């Protein structure tokens, strides 16, 4: 392609054919060798990576650098623009909890957050944890947070310094700021304090990177002496541990993508066996929050596809005692719920837009918090205290910077606490945000959120970055993103396709984009491209598609299905080797994901289904557009060998001349770089690729 000239010879991966026969079907994988046999150990020590694999990844990085060499100045410009929109010395609005209010801040030039507290009603801030100091000398560093105990004397904090998502936990004295001797390895990243502050509960990640065990740690004891509270034997389930606002219960939340089970431990007897609330029943989902003498339960029980809220007595929370509180309303999806002393609050989505509903627990009277824009995002953060009338929520749109409000549920008064500051300036009136609907292959209407400058010509000439995800029921909010302004200011239309597989239009929108209906996700995305081309927001040659992780699978699928409809494709940590990954039950996410994609080990039908769309297995002899794949060496979610194999096969099969690029971050995992500005460098790189492909350098 004309945007890429005088490139060196691209790396050619060695073929080492491996045959695999399942259900009477034999496949040959020429690039299976990229999966290192010692991958589990390598995630903790990257120096033991097979030298042949390392040499190939470094060659790919060198080729990518050569292809993108002429964008170096543009990358620096983009980075400066994006950094200029971030308030460097920013401070959160502290959250009140007992005698203190807790918050986070950044210093000018700082990559990592600092955790602080101050007197409840204002006063001098006391620094509790300095992320920049803890990150010194480390190539990768990510904090998992700081959780204080009930008397505010101690805090649990965690960090990952490899990108592998194995977190180390430490306990800090919040007065002296010294860490105690308690050091816990290979955890999920957080802990839940017992009310007396002498012990806490945490999840342990096993050798396959699954949170399979909950332990109880007593301060001062070695980790080897920690008591096993619960072990989940089914590798298909995720597990986490949490606590109630009233400190009455420890919650053990066990779930996969369609089934839930809660186990409760009363903090009055920490040595008791956790009690099951409702035994797991395939297809039954529920989550709990405490409301004093009752639990409020958000569930899809009794056919409530878009969920309803029920209640049960705290002393008898079994399924047989659940009673409706907020009935099921088809088409109105309840996303989350919170309970406080006098109010029940939930976040729901109706007609693709979010709203917050507040109900008086005594009178039953309820009201909603909503906004008037065509597309917007709401976040419900609630409060850290149970006995309060004041909750916190955030609001933004593609054009409106984030606004943080305190909301008095009794008086209905909103107090604007903070508006996201854009130091380099942002004029809302310069931009347009729209919500349009693209007709899908089967008559469904796919919502697409658009952002562009008012002076952008809508005659088909504008370049477009079209983003999609479409999996796990995750909805992509139409919120404010300062980074994409760098594209809009260069004449791009920035578009988000809210395709099936998410829950933007209710639970059915998710169901119709998973398992046997997964291909709807891909067809919806192509329909969005068709609509934007037809309505002259852009044209096929000007569309750069982008997606990451499961959205990277989407990128691989549409590249195979309709390569001519995209001028370029960016696939970040892309889940593209779908069939092989779902056949490998040693991988961290494989058993839990069978409910999303199907189990090809047990089912010949699902084997054939996955084989029919798995991007790696369907790379064909056709002309592909320029493709940029991004990978992380220590990524436990989408392992580095998936994009590596995919790029090797694309380069082998393509009949075109457009470059296929692979960039592997040799010191990071699924989330990419860990610092706030390091992450901007990665986004600037991706945007530079899009701008180069679109011919707008």
Automatic annotation (TrEMBL):
Alphabetical keyword list: Hydrolase, Protease, Serine protease
Record-annotated Peptidase S9A N-terminal domain positions: 12-419
Superkingdom per UniProt: Bacteria
InterPro entries (UniProt xref): AB_hydrolase_fold (IPR029058), Pept_S9_AS (IPR002471), Pept_S9A_N (IPR023302), Peptidase_S9_cat (IPR001375), Peptidase_S9A (IPR002470), Serine_Peptidase_S9A (IPR051543)
Pfam families: Peptidase_S9 (PF00326), Peptidase_S9_N (PF02897)
One BP annotation, GO: proteolysis
Database matches in Gene3D superfamilies: alpha/beta hydrolase, Prolyl oligopeptidase, N-terminal domain
Peptidase S9 prolyl oligopeptidase catalytic domain: residues covered: 480-695
GO molecular function annotations of the record: serine-type endopeptidase activity
Family per record: Belongs to the peptidase S9A family.
Protein name stated in the entry: Oligopeptidase B
């Amino acid at each position: 392609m004309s945007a890429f000239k005088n490139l060196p010879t691209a790396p050619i991966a060695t073929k080492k054919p491996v045959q695999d026969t399942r259900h009477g079907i034999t496949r040959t994988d020429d690039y299976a060798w990229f999966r290192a046999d010692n991958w589990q150990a390598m995630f903790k020590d990257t120096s033991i990576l097979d030298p042949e694999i390392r040499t190939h990844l470094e060659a790919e990085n060198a080729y990518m650098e050569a292809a993108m060499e002429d964008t170096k100045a543009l990358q620096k410009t983009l980075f400066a623009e994006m950094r200029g929109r971030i308030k460097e010395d920013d401070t959160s609005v502290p959250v009140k909890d007992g005698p203190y209010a807790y918050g986070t801040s950044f210093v000018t030039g700082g990559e990592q957050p600092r955790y602080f507290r101050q007197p409840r009603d204002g006063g001098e801030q006391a620094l509790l944890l300095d992320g920049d100091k803890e990150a010194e000398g480390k190539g990768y560093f990510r904090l998992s947070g700081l959780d204080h105990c009930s008397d505010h004397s101690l805090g649990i904090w965690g960090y990952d310094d490899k990108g592998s998502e194995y977190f180390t936990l430490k306990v800090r004295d919040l007065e002296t700021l010294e860490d105690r001797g308690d050091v816990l390895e290979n955890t999920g990243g957080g802990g839940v304090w017992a009310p007396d502050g002498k012990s806490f509960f945490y999840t342990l990640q096993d050798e396959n990177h699954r949170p399979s065990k909950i332990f109880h740690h007593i301060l001062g004891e070695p980790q080897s002496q920690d008591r096993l509270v619960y072990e989940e034997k089914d590798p298909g389930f995720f597990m986490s541990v949490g606590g109630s606002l009233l400190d009455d219960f420890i919650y053990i939340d066990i779930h996969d993508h369609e089934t839930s089970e809660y186990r409760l431990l009363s903090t009055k007897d920490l040595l008791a066996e956790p009690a099951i609330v409702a035994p797991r029943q395939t297809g039954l989902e529920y989550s709990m929050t405490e409301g004093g003498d009752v639990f409020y339960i958000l569930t899809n029980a009794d056919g409530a596809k878009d969920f309803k809220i029920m209640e049960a007595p705290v002393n008898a929370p079994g399924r047989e005692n659940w009673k409706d509180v907020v009935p099921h309303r088809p088409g109105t999806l309840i996303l989350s719920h919170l309970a406080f002393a006098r109010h029940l609050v939930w976040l729901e989505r109706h007609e693709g837009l979010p709203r917050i509903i507040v109900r008086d627990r005594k009178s039953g009277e309820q009201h909603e918090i909503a906004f008037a824009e065509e597309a917007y995002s709401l976040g419900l953060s609630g409060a850290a205290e149970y006995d309060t009338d004041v909750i916190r929520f955030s609001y933004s749109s593609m054009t409106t910077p984030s606004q943080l409000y305190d909301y008095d549920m009794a008086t209905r008064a909103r107090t604007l606490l903070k508006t996201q500051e854009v130091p380099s300036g942002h004029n809302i009136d310069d931009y347009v945000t729209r919500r349009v609907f693209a007709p899908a292959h089967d008559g469904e209407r796919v919502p697409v959120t658009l952002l562009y400058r008012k002076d952008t010509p809508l005659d088909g000439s504008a370049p477009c970055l079209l983003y999609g995800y479409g999996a796990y029921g995750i909805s992509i909010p139409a919120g404010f993103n300062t980074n994409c302004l760098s594209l809009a200011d260069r004449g791009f239309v920035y578009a988000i396709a809210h395709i099936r597989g998410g829950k933007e239009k209710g639970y059915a929108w998710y169901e119709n984009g998973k398992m046997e209906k997964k291909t709807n996700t891909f067809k919806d995305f192509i329909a969005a491209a068709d609509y934007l081309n037809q309505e002259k927001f852009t044209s096929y040659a000007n569309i750069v598609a982008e997606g990451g992780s499961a959205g990277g699978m989407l990128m691989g699928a549409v590249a195979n299905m309709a390569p001519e409809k995209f001028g370029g494709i960016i696939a970040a940590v892309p889940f593209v080797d779908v069939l092989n990954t779902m056949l490998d039950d040693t991988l961290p996410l494989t058993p839990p994901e069978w409910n999303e994609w199907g189990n090809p080990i047990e089912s010949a039908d699902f084997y054939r289904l996955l084989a029919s769309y798995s991007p790696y297995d369907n790379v064909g002899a056709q002309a592909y557009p320029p493709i940029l794949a991004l990978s992380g060496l220590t990524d436990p979610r989408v392992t580095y060998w998936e994009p590596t194999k995919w790029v090797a096969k694309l380069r082998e099969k393509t009949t075109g001349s457009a470059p296929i690029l692979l960039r592997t971050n040799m010191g990071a995992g699924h989330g990419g770089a860990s610092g706030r500005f390091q992450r901007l460098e990665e986004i600037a790189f991706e945007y530079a690729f899009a701008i180069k492909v679109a011919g707008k350098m």
